[in-house]
Amino acid sequence: MDSFYKPTPSRYKILCEARAFPSDQYAFASQVRAHGLDPRNAILEMVPREGEFTLRQEDILDTLKREGSSIAIVLFSGVQYYTGQWFPMEIITQRAQALGCVCGWDLAHAVGNVPLSLHNWGVDFAVWCTYKYLNSGPGGIAGLFMHEKWNEREPPRHAGWWGNEPATRFEMRPTFSPIVGAQGFQQSNPSVLSVASLLGSLQTFKEAGMMIPIRERSLQLTGTLEQLLKQSKYFVAASEVHTTQNGAGSPGFTIITPEDPESRGAQLSLLFLPEGSGVMEKINDALTSYGIIADERRPDVIRLAPAPLYNTLQDCEVAASCLEKVFEELCN
């Protein structure tokens, strides 16, 4: 953001989704304050329509059209960590740039999960971690993409020794000569353990044929899990959550991730009802006791994400069956 967020008196806003991952929110607010601006005025957070859980494409584009002349940078998650929504990255990028905005992406939950064509989509820049779908483990090295159209512009950056041209790096010159492209943003040499763990994962991705066959398998697994979950007598359609009495009484769950497979990755986010009742934590603990390792996001969401490299259709069946069993135990 230091390199790409360059606010002016008339174009200074950041457009993002509401409830972005906290570290993103911290970065947005701190960048705005560093430029002497008020986050309350400079950060535009898009919220879903009343009674809905995810953003509509037309609402994002309408906001860009309405606010575009005041937006300096558009920063969305590729796949939203809480809801699992995969945003239409190419469409948002092209519309933002047509209005004079820089467009960057947080791909922490997208890389290794969904197919990405950052160069072809014209994305200005993107960042991601590797410890989620790329399996590098906690503390794994991060990744950065910068479109080649920025190479000649040489955006300002915090220079680091490892980003200097290798040909002159060991000449210990006092002036920084960056490697062309994203590599010029490197700060220091990475840990050999972090590199080794990521290398092993990337080799597995290569052996699996990379993202096209992996995505096909992912669609099969997540689609199957979705069908099984919707067969539960405790399932409530997302459109009915705010119109039925379920939220005020008996335990149940809905899926807040988009139904359209092209608008999601591997993840399904289950919202447990009644909201705010604490039932989610009880269910997550019970699932763990049955060997189902899910991921809780307080106050009410559990994320289930079949991993196409190593999960099976049988795993999906077991997970859905265990969830049903947990509900039966909870309600009786």
From TrEMBL:
GO terms for molecular function: kynureninase activity; pyridoxal phosphate binding. SUPFAM superfamilies: PLP-dependent transferases. The keyword tRNA-binding does not apply. Keywords: Hydrolase, Pyridine nucleotide biosynthesis, Pyridoxal phosphate. GO terms for biological process: anthranilate metabolic process; L-tryptophan catabolic process to kynurenine; NAD+ biosynthetic process. InterPro entries: Kynureninase, PyrdxlP-dep_Trfase, PyrdxlP-dep_Trfase_major, PyrdxlP-dep_Trfase_small. This is Related to Kynureninase. The lineage of its organism: Eukaryota, Fungi, Dikarya, Basidiomycota, Agaricomycotina.
